[in-house]
What does this fold into?
Amino acid sequence: MSTATLTLAVIALGLLLYAWRRGDGSVRRGIDQGYRTFRRTALLLLVAFVIVGYVDVLSPRQLVQEWIGPSSGWRGLLLAELLGMLLPGGPYVVFPLIAALHSAGAGIAPVVTLVTSWATQALVSLSFELPFMGWRFAAVRWGLGILLPLMAGCTAVLLAGR
It folds into this structure.
């Protein structure tokens, strides 16, 4: 069992005990809500994990290393930033996919750039941001944030070495 799974299990058990001690039906409502969330996301998770499996098996190591490998330089960082912007989904989809690319030979700097780009510049977020915040806000945020993934990747090179 991984540390993350163990940590989540301890948190879930703690919340279960707290809900049980309240004695107000929180246990049942919490389980019902959890089940509804599971039903909404189970298919997405299954499809995402199948994609991750195929990416892991079918990724040509040589191509991954050439384009976003440890010695890919600025081209690898720029490509990783673009890929990060295009990745859809939440962390349960994106992190296994990025881990598959890393195990296929992606370098630490492009991987850090990819994660940072997805977290700060994902194009999917624009569909939520624009209606609430408007074009001006989105343009300012994107303009300020476009260099952040590249700076994170460069910092990773300095901290982790080539």
Summary: Helices lie at 3-22, 26-58, 61-68, 73-86, 91-103, 108-121, 126-145, 148-160. The chain has two domains: 1-58, 61-162. Residues 17 and 99 are 34 Å apart (CA to CA).
